[in-house]
Design a protein that fits this description.
Its EC number is 2.7.4.22. One of its GO terms (molecular function) is ATP binding. The structure is a single chain. This protein is an alpha/beta fold. The protein has one domain: Carbamate kinase (3-Layer(aba) Sandwich), CATH 3.40.1160.10. It has helices spanning about 5-15, 40-55, 75-80, 85-105, 130-135, 155-165, 200-205, 210-220, 235-240, and strands spanning about 20-25, 60-65, 110-115, 125, 140-145, 170-175, 180, 195, 195-200, 225-230, 245-250. It has a 9-stranded mixed sheet with strand order 4-3-5-2-1-6-10-11-9, sandwiched between helices. A two-stranded antiparallel ribbon has the order 7-8.
């Protein structure tokens, strides 16, 4: 039997705050800034390295991935495309991103399963709630793609729906900013960051956390959301360990 490495010993000595999480990634997170390539293998590797580190802590990890780096249905609709068709195209873009994550994770020795809300049996298995839960219990990383399988719903809504379906304890919403602010920090230098905020406060202040459908689903089911900066190394691990990272949205 191989001897445990120092890294594995350290991982076992750390106690995560959450047992099962849903990590919500935007498609744009996989694209290098200023690059013409839709997917950066280097960034995918960095993201998957963080996922692996969290998984090694004993956390059950499910991932919901967007497709905005390849196709944005709403933008296409605004340019004249029929909305349902544009949204279905966006769902297919999420499948491409999910397969990229799967490939990188499995190259790192992780066991993964991709669940799609639109059947395509040659590349992924259809989403079945109980099967996904069983796979998480078996220490597999589950990647949810193709959104909810329905037009007019975002991948934020997918994250909220799947998190509640599989009994996750929290949604980790990875962004390019380090939390929720009183205003857009890129436009307003006076914007200040919230460390913690309630659902009702976020709604009352009209803060951009998730789209209204996703946010309402989280609020109704008391599903906490942590919004944090994915670009900083080890941030996913720090969130899972209960460190003060990003902004917590909760019912209290």
């Amino acid at each position: 039997m191989p001897k445990p490495t120092a890294r594995s010993k350290n991982a076992k000595s750390l106690k995560p705050k959450y047992k099962r999480i849903v990590l919500k990634l935007s498609g744009e997170a996989l694209k290098a800034r200023g690059s013409m390539d839709n997917i950066s293998p280097e960034i995918v590797h960095q993201v998957c390295t963080q996922i692996k580190e969290v998984h090694e802590l004993g956390v059950e990890v499910a991932v919901v991935i967007g497709g905005g780096n390849i196709w944005r249905g709403l933008s296409a609709h605004h340019r004249g495309m029929e909305r349902a068709t544009a949204d279905y195209m966006g769902m297919l873009a999420t499948v491409i991103n999910g397969l990229a994550l799967q490939s990188a994770l499995e190259q790192m020795g992780m066991t993964t399963r991709v669940h799609t809300a639109i059947r395509m049996d040659n590349v992924a298995e259809p989403f079945i709630r109980r099967r996904a839960i069983d796979q998480l219990n078996e220490r597999k990383i589950v990647i949810f793609v193709a959104g909810t399988g329905n037009p007019f719903f975002s991948t934020d809504t997918t994250a909220a729906l799947r998190a509640n379906e599989i009994g996750a304890e929290v949604i980790l919403k990875a962004t390019k900013v380090d939390g929720i602010y009183t205003a857009d920090p890129f436009k307003d230098p006076k914007a200040t960051k919230y460390d913690r905020i309630t659902y009702s406060e976020a709604l009352g202040k009209r803060l951009s956390v998730m789209d209204s459908t996703a946010f309402s689903l989280c609020m109704d089911n008391k599903m906490p959301i942590i919004v944090f900066d994915m670009m900083k190394s080890d941030n996913i691990k720090r969130v899972v360990l209960g460190k003060a990272v990003g902004t917590l949205v909760t019912s209290e």
